[in-house]
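Annotated sample (chain length 307).
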Amino acid sequence: MLAEEDDRIWLGCGERTRLGLWSPVLDAYIVLLDEGVEIYALPGAAASTGGWHHGPMAPIRRTVVRAAVGFGLEPERLRPLGGRSGSAWSDGDVVLRVGERVAYEVLAVSAAAGHLPVPQVLDRLELDGVCAILLERVPGRAAGEMALHNPARAAAAGRACGELHEALAEVADPPGLRDAPGANCTERRLLHLDLHPFNVLVDDDGEPTGVIDWANAAAGDPELDRARTWSLLTLDPAARERNGDPGWAALTDQWRQAGRLHVLSASARIWACRFMLADLAARHTAAELEHIRRAVRLADARSTDPH
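Output written by the structure step:
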């Protein structure tokens, strides 16, 4: 049922009736739900709403809506950005990140600024124990995307990305940052712990313009960060699917060389593999992760081999 009342509309019937509020930006109605937002375009409005159809669009979590409103953004303009956490959204001008680990991002980005290209933190909110930050949207595109579409520049991008590890190893850990999970570290430096080709933005020449997504940031031995990236480039199922692509191969080969990812202790490799197993357990079957467990056994065998 659709019943229009000026800038409002009642959708559904009986107990399922929802009140929708008119958005002139989308030429559509947004419906607030307990779990988020749904967007409805009326029949015949497809041309002005980019081809959307009548019915619910991708839900936006209510916390994200509250953060957007708090920052003065229009929630209906937000679109989810890539990434497994689902914590990043953008209206095309700025980036909104919301989540339990976002507080670590503020510490990490502030510490890394001046050492690495990172987005500027524009504003911050606390919403019932959940942190939300507003970031500038840095130029460039993901190094992984560039490599897949422009193989000729992939090697240069890989070298530049690999060199980020040395710069990051010089950054002292900021007070209040968590310790690297499952590690006993005597050295404490800032760790990204998710430094891979889709978290580094580059320009057309392959030079990094922004290191993004610091939600995994922690303090510990810089070797752990290199080991984590080694595992992401060689063992992650998504990366293994791209092994046959020449641009991807050039990017990752040069990254490993420039970042000295081949020079890692057995203990760092074991830690990185176990970190990955814990991270991927909910998204993959045991069989799909068996090659990572084999890598643990191989590293463990080498660590105990007297020769």
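Annotation: The chain has a mean pLDDT of 83.
Annotation: The chain has three domains: 1-59, 61-137, 141-304.
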